[in-house]
C-alpha cells in the first residue's frame, strides 16, 4: 500500500488510559481560564438565563463528544483520520485545517489569560505594571514567553508528563473552585446574584448565548478520538468524556458567571471586558496562589489543545512525527497569542474567534457522526483510511458531497445568525447541524440507490 496517506491505529494492547485518566483529562480540559471567561460572557444573559443556556448547550454538545469518543475506541485512530471516511482522504484537509486553527486559537486564548496572571505576579515581585495599565504589555509579553516555554517542556517530556499535569491539576483546580466560590458568596449572596438585572444595552439574547457555548463546547468534540483511541472499553470512551467535560464546564463557567455578576453588584458597574479570571481573582483579593493556579489550569487545558492541533497537522503532513507537529503548533499558538496585544481588546478577539468556530465546526461534526453511525453502520476499516485505491478515495481523494454540504452549512449558519428570532431564542448552531445531518443522510441514500441500480 502507498504509505503517503498511512494512518496509525493504536492496538488494544497498547492502550493504557484508565477511566480516571480519561475523566481527569476532560475535567482538566474544561476546568480552565477559557471556561471561566465564557461564564463571564454569558452573564450578559442574567444568572438564570446563563445557567439554562450552559446546561442545554453543554449537554447537547457532549453527546456528540460521546459519539466521536466511541468512534475513536472502535477504530484506534484520531478524529481527523476518521474524517477521511466522510470527507475523503484528501478532502479531510478541510476538517484538519479547521481543527488546527481552532485548537491553536484555544491554546492562544488560555495562554493569554495565564500570561495576564503572570503580569500580576511580576507586579507583586518586581513592581511592573499589570496588563491593562500603561507599560503593562511588558509583563504580558513575559507571561506569554513563560507559558509557551512550559508548554514546550511538557511536550518534550512526553505523554506521561501530560498525564501527571492532568492528575495534579484536577486536584488543585477543584480546591481553587471551592475557594473562589466561598470568596464570591461571602460578600454577595446567592439571592442577590440570581436577582441581578443586566443593563439593557449590554443584554445578550438566549440564542446568542447558545451559539457562544456551542462553539466553545463543540470545539472539544473534534479532539475526542485523539484520546479515546488510547482506551480499551467503550464505556470509558463515552461516559468518562461526557461526565468529565460537563463537570469541568459547569464548575468553571458557573464560578465565572457568579464572580462576574458579584463584581458588577459590588462595584455597580458591569463590564464584560473584565470577565477574565486574572482580573476577577485580583478584584476578589485572592492573591498570588490564585494566579499560579490559573497558570496551571492553562497547562492542563492546553495539553489537550496542543495534542488535538498537533494531530490535525500530522494528518495534513504525514511525514512529520507527532512530536514535531506538537512543537510546531505550540510555536504557531505563541505567535497567535500576541494578536490581542496589537489588535483590539481580548474580548473582541475572543468573540470573533468563537463566531468562526461555531460557523465552521458544527457541519463537520454532523457529517462525520451521520456517516459513521447511519451510513457505514459503525464499520470503518482503519487500513482503508490510508488507502488511495480504496473506498475512501472517492473522486480524486475528495468526497464532494460532504465538502459542498459543509459549505452550505457555513453559509446557512451565517444567514440564520442575522435573524432576530434565532439570536433571541434558539441560536443557529444546532439547527444547522440537524439540517446538514439530514441532508447528508438523504443524499447518501440517494447515491447508494443509484449505484445499486447501475
- By CATH, the topology is Hydantoin permease
CATH homology-level superfamily: Hydantoin permease
Largest sheet: none
Strand content: under 5%
Family: Belongs to the purine-cytosine permease (2.A.39) family.
Membrane topology: Multi-pass membrane protein
Transmembrane segments: 103-126, 138-156, 168-185, 205-228, 240-265, 285-304, 325-344, 356-375, 396-416, 422-443
GO molecular function, one term: cytosine transmembrane transporter activity
Features:
454 residues; Hydantoin permease; 19 helices; globular; membrane; Pur-cyt_permease; Purine-cytosine permease related protein; transmembrane
Note the topology.
Elements: H1 19-30, H2 33-41, H3 47-75, H4 79-87, H5 93-126, H6 137-157, H7 159-187, H8 190-195, H9 206-221, H10 224-228, H11 234-267, H12 277-283, H13 287-316, H14 322-337, H15 339-342, H16 346-375, H17 400-416, H18 420-426, H19 429-453
Descriptive report:
The protein has 454 residues and is mainly alpha-helical. It has one domain: Hydantoin permease (Orthogonal Bundle), CATH 1.10.4160. Helices cover 75% and strands 0% of the residues. It has 19 helices and no strands. The model has no long low-confidence stretch (mean pLDDT 86).
Summarize this entry quickly:
Keywords: Membrane, Transmembrane, Transmembrane helix, Transport. This protein is mostly helical. Helix content is 75%, strand content 0%.
